[in-house]
Each structure stands twice: as structure tokens, then as C-alpha cells.
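WARN retry 2 of 3 for item q-0093 after timeout on previous attempt; input resubmitted unchanged.
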Amino acid sequence: MTERNEQYPVSGAGLGLRRALMNKLMADPPAEIDFMEVAPENWIHIGGRLGHKFRFFAERYPILLHGLSLSIGAPSPLNEKLLYDIKAFMDEHDIPFYSDHLSSCGDDGQLYDLMPIPFTEDAVKYVARRIRRAQDILERRMAIENVSYYAPTDTSMTEIEFINAVLEEADCDLLLDINNIVVNSINHQYDAREFMLAMPKDRIKYFHLAGHFVEAEDLRIDTHGDAVDDQVWQLLAEAYEHFGPVPTLLERDFNFPPIEELLKEIRRIKALQSAAVGDDAVAESAGG
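OK item q-0093 returned
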């Protein structure tokens, strides 16, 4: 999976870089990992020993940024200082892409949680205006990620309608989280495949993949603290069948297993990507 489609900032399978994993990964940098992703808030203005560790990985792997606190749907003013800091960080480390969540995380303060945005036309316009301003500051396109949520505040529009309207109005890109689709589909009783198929192929930059906690048969909690489950793997395979072998990043935020366990999931991603490429080749041969 070395050849990169120009639509995507990276190729293959990646791993979210967490500080708890750094020493083990530095001891033997895995060749299976094609790229990594970090939260810029955790690394901007960080020097010394930790800054040296970050540069170790930035020199060996393409790095993407996935923000935690832009709070694009919040009523408070857009955090333009954060955006200028992110731009400088991307320039310094030659980072090709930045994304954040389609959510809010507080007003004047940080809740350190992702709160849902009302699915309304007014919210579409408000959020899109802020995304356009963010892109102007960054001098780059950015992506928004579909988030997991548990108590929607307003469903005047469906989640599908809302996400697609924001993408169109803001003219931005999409980071599609496969696990979040599964979690939301169970919690809010909709069809995960139908949701996935409704996302615009030409705006997808990469996928997220993670595990979740089974609280009850009809309740899933998005934790990033467990192995990827079978429903998520199945939807990922179906996503590759529909969209092609989109670059995919594995997230794990705590309950870290041995590195080999994470690499097994990375290899499974790459095997599904390769299978999708093979299926495409067979279809083209049959058609030609």
C-alpha cells in the first residue's frame, strides 16, 4: 500500500501516536505503520525530551493532525490563536493535513468532551461559516469528523442531512469514523451501512477505526479503549468495497495492549485494503 491516491494526504494504515506508546515504538519502529496522527493541542510549543521524541516520529512517518478543542459548533468565538498555532506547527513539521470534530466542547471553557450540535439549518450555516474562517487562517482545507453522541439536542434534520449540508456549505472535507457510525447506529437505531453509503466519496480524506464498550445490547460507549469489534470490521470491509482502500487510522487511547496486538489490527486493515484492491482489479478485468 505504498502508492497514494491524490485525493488522500497519506496511504495505507496508520496508528494514533500516544505518549504511552512512544518508548516501545521508538525501540523498534514498525514498518507496518504507514502514517501516524496526533492531537496538535498536545504537541504545540512542546520542547525538550518530549519534543525530541515527537521529531523522532515526524522524521520517520507522515504525521496528520486531529484536533480536540477547536469546538467548531460552540457559541463562543472561534479560537483563532489555536488555528494560527496549528498552522505554524504544520509548517514547521511539514504536516499535510488537519481535522477536528463536528461538535462543540464547551462555551468559554473546555468540557473535555464532545457535545453534539443541533441538526438544524441555522447550525449548518453557523458551523460552515466558522469552518471557512478556519480554512482561511490555515491556508489549507480541513476535515470534520462525524462524532458519537448520546442525546441529540435537535433533530430537525437527520444526521446524514446535517453532515452533508455542512460539508457542502463549508466546502471542506470529511474524516469518516467507522466506529462512530456503528456506535450511533446502535444507540439511535439506524442502519450503519445506509449511513456510510450516504457520505460523499469525493470529500473523504481518511477513515478512523477504534473499539467501543458494550454497555448494553442497545447502548455502545465510544471509548477507544478496546479492540475493534466484529461489527466495525464488517462495516470497514463494506466501506472499502464502496469507496476503495481509503487510508485508515487505528485509534487507541488507553488500556494499551502489547504493541504486537495493535500491529495485528494494523495488518488486518491492510489485508482488507488489499482485498478491496483485488476486487477492483477483478471487476475491471471482467468489464474490459
